[in-house]
Write a structure and sequence with these properties.
about 325 residues; alpha/beta; Rossmann fold; Dihydrodipicolinate Reductase, domain 2; 2 domains; 6-stranded parallel beta sheet; 6-stranded mixed beta sheet; 12 helices; 12 strands; binds NADP nicotinamide-adenine-dinucleotide phosphate; methionine biosynthesis; HDH_CS; EC 1.1.1.3
């Protein structure tokens, strides 16, 4: 029997998930033992043309998604805290696994959703909320079995990194580099979240909660974007062997967590010095494994869908193992 899933939102990410499922059925069947069927898609605008197979169920009514019989998992790719939080809460209460790309929602309500998912015996995948295809959440979950993470430094916003790279390598002004980012589809028409550091701060919150199990007082955390940097400062840093990088940083120091999100001029010895263009990267300082750096596409249709589908596959395998374990525990000897 097919594994039934639904997709909430059919924009860049939702469409990537849909197409990823259609184009990877062979791999999914091999891993999960059954085909994956997209049993419903939730959108806001019923009139927009969608590139989906004929007969695909598309609705603007969430109740119709929730009513799909035998729904295993829901991929959430809509924007903002609400209605996503309400929708995901209801999916979990119904016994569906959820996989989300929505960082704004997860930075605010991640803890509540994780608690709720435990109560209802389902799993939440949130790899796609932070650094796109870069498997940082999974890496932290694996590492934390024994290691202690003492510091995380990340380039978590591809738009900012692209702008800083263009300002340095091609001597563009901030305005010219921002326009180029917009022309290439890397920046929104309203780029505030990206260039003011808010997007990176959201992702740092998610990483911090996972790595340290608590967070600093975010009201006191310095969050500064790249909008005030001049090309003169970038060129001066370059001449002295430094590069400006927008770095989200959290570290355990003297029993306290210290965090900041701001542009920093780093030397060539820094692990994030060579991370250029729209790439994201995260460097971890750990107690046993030493320093680890992961780098890759931080956003985009298929990199983000990749993170969500890998989460989905891992969650289904995990829940299958749990079922087998429970069944074998019941077999009389
Ligand atoms: N784009 C990326 O590369 C990327 C990477 C990582 C994470 N994310 C996160 O993934 C999420 C989706 O991003 P996106 O770029 O795919 O956004 P998008 O292209 O703007 O698509 C958003 C989708 O959500 C639907 N939607 C919005 N509000 C809704 C509502 N109230 N009820 C039902 N559907 C609603 C929209 O419906 P209509 O089509 O009908 O308008 C649209 O299909 C966001 O939370 C974003 O932060 C994005």
């Amino acid at each position: 029997m097919a594994i039934k899933v639904a997709i909430l939102g059919y924009g860049t990410v939702g469409e990537g998930v849909y197409k990823g499922i259609q184009n990877h059925q062979e791999q999914l069947i091999e891993k999960l033992g059954d085909a994956v069927e997209v049993a419903g898609i939730l959108v806001r605008d019923p009139l927009k043309k969608r590139d989906v197979q004929p007969g695909t169920f598309i609705t603007t009514r969430f109740e119709e998604i929730l009513a799909i019989p035998g729904l295993h998992a829901v991929f959430e790719a809509i924007v903002g805290k609400e209605p996503g939080y309400t929708y995901l809460s209801q999916c979990i209460e119904k016994g569906c696994h959820v996989i989300t790309a929505n960082k704004v929602l997860f930075a605010k309500y991640g803890n509540e959703l994780l608690k709720k998912s435990k109560q209802h015996g389902v799993h939440i995948g949130y790899e796609a909320t932070t650094a796109g295809a870069v498997p940082i959440i999974r890496t932290l979950q694996e590492l934390l079995k024994v290691n202690r993470v003492t510091r995380i430094q990340g380039i978590l916003n591809g738009t900012s990194n692209f702008i800083l790279t263009e300002m340095r390598a091609n001597r563009l002004s901030f305005g010219e580099a921002l326009k180029l980012a917009q022309d290439n589809g890397y920046a929104e028409a309203n780029p505030e979240n990206d260039v003011e550091g808010k997007d990176a701060a959201c992702k740092l919150k998610i990483l911090c909660q996972l790595a340290f199990g608590c967070t600093p007082d975010w009201e006191e955390v310095e969050v500064e974007g790249i909008a005030a940097i001049t090309s003169g400062e970038v060129q001066k840093a370059e001449a002295e062997g430094f590069r400006y990088k927008h770095i989200a940083d959290i570290r355990a120091e003297g029993g306290k967590l210290k965090a900041s999100v701001k542009p920093i001029a780093v030397s060539s010895a820094h692990p994030l010095f060579s991370v250029e263009g729209v790439d994201n990267a995260i460097t971890l300082e750990t107690s046993l494994a030493g320093n680890l750096t992961l780098q890759g596409a931080g956003a985009g249709k298929f990199p983000t869908a990749s993170a969500m589908l890998e989460d989905f596959s891992a969650i289904l395998e995990k829940s299958l193992r749990t079922k087998i374990h429970l069944l074998s525990a019941r077999v009389p000897v």
